Amino acid sequence: MLEYIFIAFIAILGIQFIYYIFIFGAFSFASKAPKQATFNIPVSVIICAKNEAQNLTTNIPLFINQNYSNFELVLINDGSNDHSLEVMEQFQQTHPEQIKIVNVAPNEQFWGSKKYALTLGIKAATNEHLLFTDADCKPVSNNWITEMTQHFSEDKELILGYGGYKKIRNSFLNKIIRFETLITAIQYFSFAKIGMPYMGVGRNLAYTKNLFFTNKGFVNHIKIKSGDDDLFVNQVANKKNTTFCFSNNSSTISNPKTTFKSWIQQKRRHISTASHYKKTHKLLLGLFYTSQLLFWVLGILLLSFLYKWQFVVALIIFRSCFHYISIGFAAKKLNEKDVILFLPFYELFLIFVQLFIFIKNIRSKPSHW
């Protein structure tokens, strides 16, 4: 039996090598995606906000002051019951030609649906090229619009960007959140690089009006409350129409969750949404996660019986080497180098958190969105 487990362990290691070197390596070892010939095209930056008065007060000036001369800011008030609308109107008074407000009243048919609010905002946008972020996001530079939109072209209608989280010193939870965000970004950038784009994040995402309306917007998954970003990308993205941007000036930064309970709830929503991906994407992502879990379970099992322990240790070290190299190069690209020091520990912790969430989601679906 241990011999069969050892053979399975080697096979799992081979699968991991393919993922980290050949799939994730497509992004980790790649140069920056070339910018297209477009320059200063008209852009509509769209921000959907629900009870985000404080974040809007802080962050709207960062968007207004972008080094880009040809853009409008579309602010969507998604049925807020705080002062979000008043904040939007105050900024509109000082920038009437630059800011457009879409005030979304509650609708019984689409109650609490961000997709409904976003659809109204997209319809109201003046320009063909749309750039999306969230009210709690900050662009890392005044060149964010320039960096993201320079990847549009006649063929490329969808641009995937990186949405990171604010660094909090001496916080284990913050390291885990940022590590998980890094791994997710490596995955969706890598699959886009090899011609199999499957998701993006609404914190930093761009596409055209034509792409949105040609594919009937969010109609195919309108009843699923989440997924205005990743499910839409999963539906419409392909090798020809999708590219990505990861330059130092193209990212956004959000405030991370500060309690494990709120973070787990957020991850439950994300994982439940992923169950609606295309079958090929679910298979590839599921195989990667399963290979991670089995590598450590089988490795620990073999070591506990001291079965060919020298070879097992050597293989674990070998795996750690290409693991660090692949993730390390990607972390450097995305300015997340500080999360890779304790890489194996973070990986193990995240594996079992995801297993816990997967089991919990089977027993009961997330009820809070």
UniProtKB/TrEMBL annotation:
Query: Which Gene Ontology molecular-function terms are recorded?
Result: glycosyltransferase activity
UniProt KW Transmembrane keyword? yes
Q: Where is the signal peptide?
A: none
Question: Among its keywords, does the record have Transmembrane helix?
Answer: yes
Q: Where is the Glycosyltransferase 2-like domain?
A: 44-176
Give the highest taxon in the source lineage: Bacteria
- Cross-referenced Pfam families: Glycos_transf_2
Which keywords, in A-to-Z order, does the entry hold? Answer: Glycosyltransferase, Membrane, Transferase, Transmembrane, Transmembrane helix
Transmembrane stretches in the record are 6-30, 283-303, 309-327, 339-359
Q: Which InterPro entries match?
A: Glyco_trans_2-like, Glycosyltransf_2, Nucleotide-diphossugar_trans
What EC number is given for this enzyme?
A: 2.4.-.-
* Protein name, UniProt field: Glycosyltransferase
